[in-house]
Amino acid sequence: MTVRTRFAPSPTGLLHIGNARAALFNYLYAKHHHGQFLLRIEDTDRERSTQKAVDVILDGLAWMGLTPDEEPVYQSTRIKRHQEVALHLLETGKAYKCFCTQEELADMRAKAQAEGKAPRYNGYWRDRDPSEAPEGAPYTVRIKAPHEGKTVLNDLVQGEVTVANIELDDMIILRADGTPTYQHAVVCDDHDMDITHVIRGDDHLTNTFRQLMIYRAMGWNIPHFAHLPLIHGPDGAKLSKRHGASSVVEFRDEGYLPEALCNYLLRLGWGHGDDEILSREEQIKLFDLDGVGRSPSRMDYAKLLHVNGYWLRQANDARLTQDIISRLSEQEGFVLDPIHQQRILALMPGLKERAKSIVELTQNAAFLCMEPPLLFNDKAQKLLNEENCAMLSKLASQLATLTSFTKEAINHLLHQFAETEGLKLGKVAQPLRAAVTGSTMSPGIDDTLLALGKEEVLARLGAVTNG
Predict the structure, then answer these.
(1) In the annotation, is 241 catalytic?
(2) Which of 45, 75, 157, 371 gets the highest tally of CB atoms within 10 A of its CB?
(3) Which of 111, 117, 238, 241 is catalytic?
């Protein structure tokens, strides 16, 4: 058997982090077992499904590196197949036409509630002759649920789960307008796509028992099911925007790297000893469903940021430079020509050591793409007093004499200048940093000056000391 998993989102909103983790687990499980990972877009809700939402899903999966092994299947293109299966069940007596009106169904629910029973359909048309219905009356198609015994599911995460069949009602599989219900379409699609393992959130556990009725009525092979505990907020409540970012797009916009988010999501509900940092190759090698816990996981944004800082330090400098350029290009006041890009690339080793997100990295690198005079933050402004500006003017004169503007030459000159002036190096470096960056934070001052280049350093010092 070739393992085939699928991620089947509904394009009615953003790619929520819980769905993203489900996609990751499906991908890793398939790859661990040398199988295939598929994507199905469940877009049968035509009013709420939008192309924009589809694009968000596709972009999010691509950003996370979760590439399906086949072209995506769009559920809306398969309605005829869903209808065909429903009509087959109707013809074989495993489903029936229900002519109940909305008012009659509402009365049934109200009566059941008054009797202390679950508000559901009572099977009124299950054994009646359709000829008893008014001519031309609209109808739905309902599957015949078993009334006796129990249904047992051996879930690969939750263990053995049992439901008494009396709890299952005759659910609708085809609406009055001929469109399939979610429960029916999912089963048809999973069967036709040869899905062997359905890995999804445990909020679908109840759905599974309803869907099993269709598998059994059609005599189809039943896939293995694995229902993942949900992700909660830090306070244990359902994860929502009030906790912070909750969709893949939001995490990307807030400066998280895809490898960091995937690494963190993997460890959110799955474990392998004390291993915290795992590459994609290691994830595929180690991941299996026996490591998934049964309890809900809690988002820890501080831990995610820590993981992001690690992967930021491992990331390729050129890639990070392009990320920064992309973000700065959306803002005004920055020069982003090749010279300025080269400055960022040159200083990247020092910049990424001091940041935990792309947003922070961009903020720290922004000074490299500014033209003098700079804007100074309060701490920098305080350092650029009359005394320090006079000192920087003398320093600028000496920097101008350097014929070789190398890190070593800069370092030697700064130490020599501080000694001659009877100052500690920090008393020279901090005002100098403030003058050329606009802040009091940057990588080493020698690296910073080297990245800016002699001409730019002198221009920035001149803007401060001549002003």
Answers:
(1) yes
(2) 75
(3) 241
